[in-house]
Design goal:
124 residues, mainly alpha, elongated
Length: 124
């Protein structure tokens, strides 16, 4: 099924390009560009996964193609880890700049009681 192979190859190229876009947006520290790149990556990755699933049942891919797919999977994992770390850094930076929000909705300001503990304290 050459058409299936060509379509899958074209989608893999699209995924690789979008991974490059996400990398570039991460390095440029541009949140809007990063959001757009991630959204585009998600779309092409879903299309690629669907095509790959159909193609796997129809043909066997060569070792080079499999290595590229594995490299894409590794890059996705690396980007996910990088985004998680960046999120923690941003949250810590915001917490150091801005006053942390108050206690949970169900707590009483100035009270040290755990959730629901004040209700039980009055019952005894």
């Amino acid at each position: 099924m050459p058409d299936s192979r060509q379509s899958t190859e074209a989608l893999l190229v699209d995924v690789e390009r979008q991974l490059d876009e996400v990398d570039a947006a991460l390095l440029a520290d541009e949140p809007t560009r990063l959001q757009e790149a991630c959204s585009s990556l998600r779309g092409v990755a879903i299309s690629f996964a669907r095509m790959l699933e159909a193609a796997l049942s129809a043909e066997v891919f060569d070792a080079g193609f499999k290595r590229r797919v594995e490299a894409v999977a590794e890059r996705l994992n690396t980007q996910r880890t990088s985004l998680a770390r960046r999120s923690v850094v941003v949250e810590r930076a915001l917490a150091s700049i801005m006053r942390p929000s108050g206690d949970a909705t169900y707590s009483v300001p100035g009270s040290r009681a755990a959730f629901g503990a004040s209700a039980y304290a009055g019952a005894h």
